[in-house]
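Session log. Operator J.P. requested a structure for one protein chain; no other inputs attached. Running the standard single-chain path with token output.
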Amino acid sequence: MQTTFTPITALLGGALIGLSAVALMAFAGRIAGVSGIAAHLLPPFSDQDWRGRLAFIAGLVAAPVVVRVATGSLPPQAIETGGILLAVAGLLVGFGSVWGSGCTSGHGICGVSRLSLRSILATLIFMATGFATTFIVRHLA
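Structure written below.
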């Protein structure tokens, strides 16, 4: 499995993610955790900020369309598994987000930058799990 690292786009993407997290905190007083934003769109939650939450999720969905319009093509994607395993993986990620009181974006970007001990620990755990999974898939499977 070959991966391509492009430092310029990675730097720009990271800067945009950081800027969006700072802007959401500065203007709305909210942490940019995608799982929390998405979960609070569904019942039983109800608050006055549902339009902002919906706009945030719509922006995530619209991003590939913007890339397609700007460049004429989409970045290559490869998902080398079937639909059932992909669905199970999605459910596990959702379970982990609920069990861990947040997702990678909430803990890794916003929590770590606020020096939250819980977020630092969560980030260390999911990064270690990702490293171990990558090693197993690439070298032992």
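Operator note: The CA atoms of residues 134 and 140 lie 10 Å apart.
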